[in-house]
Amino acid sequence: MKAKNWRAPERPYTRADYIAGAPQPRIAKYTHGKYSDDYEYELLLVAREDMQIRDVALEAARIALTKKLSSALGSEGFYAELKAHPHHVLRENKMIFGAHADRLQEGMRRAFGKPVGRAARVSSGSPVFRVLVNENGLQVAKEALDLASKKLPKSYRIVIRRLQPKAAA
Description:
Blueprint: E1 31-33, E2 41-47, E3 51-54, H1 55-73, E4 78-82, E5 88-92, E6 114-122, E7 127-133, H2 138-149, E8 156-162
Antiparallel strand pairs: 1-4, 2-7, 2-8, 3-6, 4-7, 5-6
């Protein structure tokens, strides 16, 4: 199957307790680094259009992002968070091709499909990744988010926001 089959949002199929054999999401961790209230910048990887992103693509982007950030800043110099959660269960009506396969398939009869994976439904303008860094890691975080966006379908933009420092008590 080509990846373009899963990009367009379809009707949500999320009730895993009613789905027999729904696969688990393949995301190992949703957060990485050290969280603190005194980071200076927040960077968001924001989707430009509505789409579905497979869980394996999210995991590949997360690994690329955290590897770049931790090699440049160490595990204490940033906080990265995956904001898109793969709740939607993808289905596929499997067709068998080849010799003597005509007895095994029924075409479009009972074509609802079996669960094959999961995807996150992302709407236009919503963040996929969030990174908190100080000023010395700003350029590295931009490069890391750009690298992560190349692992994901369609196009994204990076939003940089300066966080307000905490007022002294």
